[in-house]
């Protein structure tokens, strides 16, 4: 919702991308239900939705470019072998330790801070080598990682502004490093606070989520406006969806979005 408001308030395009790279975990029909829900809640996207599963040639080209410049290495370490480490310890930087095993492709990261200015969270910096180590671009099972897919697609689709949840704030420096390695532009970022469960865990579709009901859309959209700091009038809850969205676009401002939600169980 924040990304939609931000795009429309600035006369920009709003894109829908279905990130379906992890095919074994894909739920049949999920993409169609996502698009149906967006439509029922009044979201209007520009162009056709993009399916990442149909863009493998772009990801392979990016990986080949990085390999040719020795910016990646192959890693045979399994998840269980790395479970005790807070960050990737660099076991395979000089060559895969377990020959004959399937390998993942990692981006070679050197020490040093990545610094950027988030439009909501403010100045942010991170030494990726220290905090995370060399990130995976392609998994051991051959699945392209989110990091590579999102960076390649943002550039290919001409994305200039990214608005998303603050749970991805730590991922942004890795994306900026990869953008630099691939000689791609870096979008402007804005990270909104994340809705959480009472125990502080991120509100997730895998826990207590229930399907959204289209007849409740105006009231739910207005509630999200409140959480985003927009202070909508109570009468807006009974308005038509199109009118609700027009109000939100007119009053949108990232300066009003809180860095952290303070209401109830929200964090």
Specify the overall morphology.
elongated
Rg, rounded, reads: 20 Å
Q: How many E strands?
A: 9
How confident is the prediction overall: mean pLDDT? 93
Provide a count of the helices: 8
Unreliable spans are none
How widely separated are the two ends? Answer: 18 Å
The biggest sheet, with number of strands, parallel, antiparallel or mixed sense and barrel status, is: 3 strands, antiparallel
Main structural class: alpha/beta
Name the helix and strand elements from N-terminus to C-terminus, one letter apiece. Answer: HEHEHEEEEHEHEHEHH
Strand content: 5-15%
What proportion of the residues is helical, as a percent range? 25-40%
Characterise this structure.
- The chain has 267 residues and is of the alpha/beta class.
- 30% of the residues lie in helices and 14% in strands.
- The protein contains eight helices and nine strands.
- The strands form four sheets. Strands 3-4-7 form a three-stranded antiparallel β-sheet. A two-stranded parallel ribbon has the order 1-2.
Give the SSE map.
Elements: H1 2-9, E1 17-18, H2 30-40, E2 50-51, H3 56-68, E3 72-75, E4 104-107, E5 113-118, E6 122-127, H4 128-131, E7 136-138, H5 146-156, E8 161-165, H6 172-181, E9 188-192, H7 217-227, H8 241-251
Parallel strand pairs: 1-2, 8-9
Antiparallel strand pairs: 3-4, 4-7, 5-6
Helix pairs in contact: 1-8, 5-6, 7-8
